[in-house]
């Protein structure tokens, strides 16, 4: 389908104990679109993320990626680190992409440069700051040529500089035409970058539209704090 990167059709996910995590969720994401999916804890955001990333399978419905592959930036950045240094960590995924040694080296150098981590290439990866660890996760995704990048609660446990670093790399990805999907309840930190805004509540997609229209909804009814309580306009809703 032209210009469509991701299609989610009538997706449901029910666990073995009978818990219904998602119910009949349908939407599509265009190539190069920056979409924010909000929802309170237990809304189904992380379950949806796992399904899109291929870490789990839906109980019903279908998820289709068109001419792209998804890369995931986990909420817990340390869980994603597999190498001793950023250079080794980035190379880990690239080596599994059937590339030559030279191609892996080129991909690693490119990813380090893109994420501003070249000067940290030989540092101890687990001693990086929270923001740097999330940038490292993005670098690994870029090295594997993933064009759909999913951020799961990207601001969790980050201080102000860390949030700024993550927002900066998100803004850069948007400008480079990457397809970005951000799952978060902290709208005030990222909504200014969004082309699209969706809300999950109790496993159902209850809103899908523009950020401006979404802010007119009663977000508190879905367990989300409306960022207009702290910001005067959508343009202010990014921590850069």
What does the secondary structure layout of this molecule look like, with pairings?
Blueprint (H helix, E strand, L loop, with lengths): L3 E11 L5 E11 L3 E5 L6 H8 L7 E6 L4 E4 L12 H9 L6 H14 L15 H14 L4 E5 L7 H16 L3 E5 L12 E6 L2 E6 L1 H4 L26
Parallel strand pairs: 3-7, 3-8, 5-6, 6-7
Antiparallel strand pairs: 1-2, 1-4, 8-9
Helix pairs in contact: 2-3, 2-4, 3-4, 4-5
Give the overall pLDDT as a whole number.
Answer: 93
Query: Alpha-carbon distance between the termini?
Result: 35 Å
> What is the gyration radius calculated from CA atoms?
18 Å
Classify the beta-strand content into a percent band.
15-25%
Order of helices and strands: EEEHEEHHHEHEEEH
CATH fold-level topology of the domain at 1-69 and 180-240: Rossmann fold
Largest sheet: 6 strands, mixed
Strand order of the largest sheet: 5-6-7-3-8-9
Shape: globular
Describe this structure as you would to a colleague.
- With 240 residues, the protein is α/β, with parallel strands linked by helices.
- It has a domain at 1-69 and 180-240: P-loop containing nucleotide triphosphate hydrolases (Rossmann fold, 3-Layer(aba) Sandwich).
- Helices cover 27% and strands 25% of the residues.
- The strands form two sheets. A six-stranded mixed beta sheet has the order 5-6-7-3-8-9, sandwiched between helices.
